[in-house]
Amino acid sequence: MSESILDVFQGREYPYTYSAEHEPIAKIDPGQTVRIHCVDCFENLLVEEDQKFSDVCEYPYLNPQAGPIFVNGAEDGDTLLVHIEDIEITRDWAVTGLVPKFGLLTPTAVTEMLTDAIPDIVRKLPIRDNQVWFGDLSTELAPFMGTIGTAPKLEAINALTPAHYGGNMDCPETCAGNTVHLPVLNEGALFFCGDGHATQGHGEIGGVACEVPVNLVCHFELIKGEAIGWPRITNKDYMMVVGSARPLEDATRIACTGLVDWVASEYDMNSTDALLWITQILELRVGNVCDPNYSVVAAVERRLLEAR
């Protein structure tokens, strides 16, 4: 890993899709530490509580991405490791609120209902003393990247949608100290990131987290010739697989299937034994239940996979 940090700025319009058609903003060698400057999911346009989301946002123009970044040497069929070193929040407040027709508990653009949509509300939440404040209530900062992934093949998919390439998974596990494993589907991998969150509850049920602009400090590593089907997340304690789909049942199946297969391979078990044991030790976490696809994280502790 390089000791110097290369700052990467967008320098042009932010893309709102994951696509191989976007021109790279930078070319990076594996091992080079980069600081990628990201705006928030509203392109930093919401700055006052008397604004409305509808004043500045037009669906699906949400989640502007930094990228793509071309990783030298990456080829279709490789795996890209994104070692997250730090996520630097770059202002002293977060924006949250409610977006009409977006979220779990409202009619949406995907699922209309006879009831009215939730109101259009913007709230600014101060950040101080390592806490996010909601009036006199607070919770600790736990920054992560809501959106992180690589370009899919042939398609241009809006940046609100998580899928096999990563994207808008909204998983708090994409945080500093963890490594995100992403499939490489195009030359150069074509890495995107954005949608920084100061903190978020599991599921993001209201549709909007504590949204902040951030700098993602990370470095890349390539595993040559080893393809993965879905994103993985690792640290010294856990192995995790993220599945994204609708309904939530299918996202869960994707994540659990990927984890069973991975554990069986990593720990020299047959798939039956892996399934039997993972059934006893599995942790299921919901990333989001508000996006075009829902995301589920299937996780196991490594210590429970080590022979004693």
UniProtKB/TrEMBL annotation:
This is Acetamidase. One of its GO terms (molecular function) is hydrolase activity, acting on carbon-nitrogen (but not peptide) bonds, in linear amides. InterPro entries: FmdA_AmdA (IPR004304). The lineage of its organism: unclassified sequences, metagenomes, ecological metagenomes. PANTHER family: FORMAMIDASE C869.04-RELATED. It holds the Pfam family FmdA_AmdA.
